[in-house]
Amino acid sequence: MLQIVSGQLTEEQLKNIVANNQCDVIAHELESTNLFNEEMKFNAAICIYRNGNADRALQLFKEVQDIKGMRWKAAIFWEGKIYAAHNQDSLALHTLQSMPGGFLNYKLLSHPEFETVSANSKAFAEFKNKFRPGFNFWTGLLFIISVIGIIVGFVLLFFLLSATCKINVVKH
Fold first, then answer.
1. Is 38 helix (H, G, I), strand (E, B) or coil?
2. pTM for the complete prediction?
3. In the CATH hierarchy, which fold is given to the domain comprising 11-135?
4. pLDDT, tens digit, for every residue of 72-126?
5. Alpha helical stretches, state H, 6-136
6. Domain limits of the chain?
7. What is the CA radius of gyration of the chain?
């Protein structure tokens, strides 16, 4: 669905345009839009980046980070994506390493922008592999506990079935 807008963009319009990947439609309106909150700055930065103005997008993502609202972690991630897309491997890695724990995962680091960086930079490839799903102590412990739970469940099930059968035999 193509959206055509003119004049001042609203927060909802900008959000829908980013979601529908229609940033090229609003390139001219975006420059004259008053970006008055974090959400608008974040979505505008995405559109500006998609329209080819990485420097302006970086400036807006840094403003979003300074606000420290809901989108500041995502702004850091997008900053890393921009650096990666422009083959600035060390800046991309440094930016992503500065993120607080719990935000990044292997799927995020598998975005197309990071493929070249991952192939060219051993440090980035190692950083990305830290997030690769795998077995560790905690997943092993969880596996053992779940197997014990299944065994206990079957033992209880068979005990109850055999006890029920014995009660029915005694009644007859």
1. helix
2. 0.70
3. 1.25.40
4. 899 999 999 999 988 888 898 999 988 887 888 888 888 888 888 888 888 888 8
5. 11-19, 27-32, 38-50, 54-67, 72-85, 89-97, 112-120, 122-129
6. 11-135, 136-172
7. 26
